[in-house]
Each structure stands twice: as C-alpha cells, then as structure tokens.
Amino acid sequence: MEEKPARLTGARFLIQAEEAEAMAKEAGVAAVTELLPLLVPAAQRLARPPISNYRVGAVGLGTSGRIFLGANLEFPGLPLNHSVHAEQFLVANAAAHGETGIRCFAASTVPCGHCRQFLQEIRGSAEIQILVTSDEEPAFRPLASLLPLPFGPHDLLHKGVPLLLEPHDNALGATVVPGGGGGRGLFDAIGEGRMEQRLRAAAEAAARASHAPYSGCVAGFAVADVDERVYAGSYLESAAYNPSLGPVQAAMVAWVAAGGGGGGEDGGWGIVAATLVEEEAAVVSHVGTARIFLEAMAPGAHLEAYRLRSSKAD
C-alpha cells in the first residue's frame, strides 16, 4: 500500500488511540508507530520560535495508544532558558493528559543534550525509541544510543519514588499564606472574584501533581484569558536541575495545546490573570520567574502568589 501524507486539521496536540489507528490506515502504514514521522511536519507548523525562526516538532506515542504532539516555544524579551523544547512540550502535554509512559517518538531533528537529559525522568527511558526525520535513513533507535552513560533518577532517588508521567499526589496543607502577588482590582473585575478562586484551585492541583523529587519544592501555575478560560502547568524537575521545566513554562504548554495564546507579531498572548502556588518554605521559588515572564509576555496581567504550608507541618 502506498504511503500517503498524514492529514491533521487545526492546531491539535492530542490524537486519541482510535483516531490514531484510523489515521494510520488512511495514510497507508501498517502501524501507528509509522504514522508518527508523517505527523512531524504538522507538529513543526505548530511551533512558535520568533527568536530563532527554527521550528522543531516532535510526535510521540503513549502507552495508552494516544499520540501527543510537541513543538518548541520561544518568548521574546526573556532569557533563552525560558524556551520550551519540542520534546519537553510533548512530555508535559502527555503528563497533563494523564499519560503514564512514552513508547516512542519522531522528531524533526535529533534531540539536544538538554532533552536527552530531561527524558531520563521517565521510567524505562533508555528503551524509548526515537526516529529523526531529518536523518538520511530515518529509523527508530533507543534513547540509550543517544545518551549511553546517563545520569538520572537512579543516581539520586529510591526505587519506589514516582517518576515523571507516574501519578503524583504531593501533600500540601490547606493553610494559604499570601505570597505577594499584587492588588485585587483585575480579579474583582473578572467574574466578581470567582476567577481568583478558579485560578488558585487550578494552580494548587498542578502543584499537587508536580514532579519535584530533588528539591521537594512542588509548584503549580495557572493562567486565565478574557474569556475566563483557565490552564495550568506543574513543575517538572530533572535530576540534572537545569533541564527542569518550570510551572510557568508548563502552563504555557497547556495554554498553547488548548489553542490559546496569540503569539503573533504584537507579542500578545491574551493572558489577563495568573496564579502561582508553591510551598511556604520552598528553597526553590518561581515567583520571580512568573513576574518577569508576565512583564514580558502579558504586561497587563495580574499575578497572585500563594504559599501553602506542607501538611507535614500541620
């Protein structure tokens, strides 16, 4: 059967298992894994790289049979380390949808060292199969072939500690300590204060789901637009620290994956309010990052920050 280009309508970052099977059949390939590289061009088109103008796309198959897309994001006016790599987007997207593992993925270019390290947080990462569509002879190969001597969770954590994409329910107390986010004017203007409650609830849920076994500093960030839609992201740590994906960036993944954010030439992302939740005694805080991000990307947005006392202290 002749292989056909895969068609993906709209800005979609998730394909359900049944639809993936149907798309593979329509594309004339024998398995869903063969569909992944055909979807990479669509993932590249979803990238937002206004600084480098270099579009990277990644398409992964979860253990559930669902397909997740990822694309690189860049934010003008911010340091480059605020950027989101396509592979990070893919994993954060999968985590946000309750995926428990990544079997394989195809990418438009070979994963950089940053992403190879970030992927170590997934259990069984060495066996994740990767295909690079820009290779002369694209073929799946294990992550272990790209990072043969890895440093990762096995060096720092006990075997029973949940890894990235595994269920997390971080214990946080109910006591809320204001973290110094600013005035309430905009919150009161949106939904008569209901938006503040929704944002705080979303950010707290993201904090409970965050993967922060190295610092223990769980955190969640939530954003809202003028239509009162709320999207949140969890802090996702790396054993090597620097490849960690902060809650602000994770929230932008959720935002973009849901079709939010203009990301146009005017730099507007449509964010009007945001909330950060983290632990009261956290040695790693994301308040400063949240502030500079909003100043650059949504200067009119209101930020509220809360610190929750750990339930261990209650």
Automatic annotation (TrEMBL):
Homodimer. It holds the Pfam family dCMP_cyt_deam_2. Belongs to the cytidine and deoxycytidylate deaminase family. Its cofactor is Zn(2+). It comes from Musa acuminata subsp. malaccensis (Wild banana). Gene3D superfamilies: Cytidine Deaminase, domain 2. GO terms for molecular function: cytidine deaminase activity; identical protein binding; zinc ion binding. Residues 31-154, 194-309 form the CMP/dCMP-type deaminase domain. Its EC number is 3.5.4.5. It comes from the Eukaryota. Keywords: Hydrolase, Metal-binding, Zinc. This is cytidine deaminase. Substrate binds at residues 72-74. GO terms for cellular component: cytosol.
